[in-house]
Write a structure and sequence with these properties.
Ku70, Chain: A, Domain 2, alpha+beta, extended, 30% helix, seven-stranded mixed β-barrel, two-stranded antiparallel ribbon
Length: 292
Amino acid sequence: MHTMWKGTISFGLVNIPVKLHAATENKDVKLRQLHKECQSPIKYEKMCPVCDREIENDEIVKAYEYAKNKFVVLTAEEIEELQEEQTDKSVEIVDFVQLEEIDPIYFEKSYYLSPNEGGGKAYSLLRKALEETGKIGVAKMIIRSKEQLAAIRVYQNTLIVETIHYPDEVRNVQDVPNVPEEVEPVKKELDTAKLLIDQLTAEFDPEKYQDEYRTALLDLIEEKKNQDQTTTAKQKEVPNNVTNLMDALEASLDRAKTTKPKPAAEKKKTTAKKTTAPKRANPQKKQTKKNA
C-alpha cells in the first residue's frame, strides 16, 4: 500500500512514528471526451482570453478573488511562509471524545495508519487504550500543505484517521430551501411508516451493496469491445523537417520565377524596337546595284 505521509502521533509524552495510507479509492468509470468527427481526445489548454494565447505554468500566479474581477495576488514565497508545515510533521491529539458525539456530516476522508520503524509498541498501546475506553482522539495535522482536523480511532485492529471538516466548512442547515415546518402526521400513516421500517431493518453488511450503474456501464463497455465496436484516435501528423524544407524551397523558387522582374536592358531593347520607324531605302545604293 502506497505511503503518502510519514510523521508522528503524540498524546501526552507518548510519540508514535507512523505512516499514512489512503483507506478509500474512487472507482468511478472515467469517460474521455472525443471529437465526434475524427474520434480524437479533446485537449484542454490554459488560455489567456486577453493575450489570446496558451499560457505556460511558469506564467501563472495564484490570487484570491475578493470581488468580481478584483484579485489579491499572492506569491509562492508568501504562501509558503503561511503554510504551517511542521519540520517533524507531528500530529498532536488534543482531546479524546465519544465517536457518537461527531455527526457524520463532519467526516471527509479516511486514511489508514501503520507504525513506522520502532513504533509498534506505542501503536499497540494507543490502539488498546482507545478500544477499552471507547474513545477517539481529536487531532490536528497537516496533509498536502493544508491543516486538517482529524479523528483517530480503531477500525478492525488498525488505527484510522478520519479528516473532519471545520465548523465553518459545514453549511448552515437553516439555508436549505423549502424544508417543511414540523407537522404532526396522521397516526395511522406514522404507524404504517414505522412498520415498514421494522420490516426493512437489518444488520449493516457493506458487501451486499453494489454500484449497479458502474457494473452495467462496465458490462456495456466490455460488450462493445467484444463486438469490435471500438475506435482508434487519429494521430496528428508530425511534420518532416526535410520534406518541409524542400517544399518551402521549391515553393520559393516557383514564386521567384513568376515574380522575377525582367532586366532593364531587355526592356529598353523591346521598347526601342516597337517605336523605331522603318528605314528608307537608299536610292544611290539601289542604282549602283542595277548598273552592275
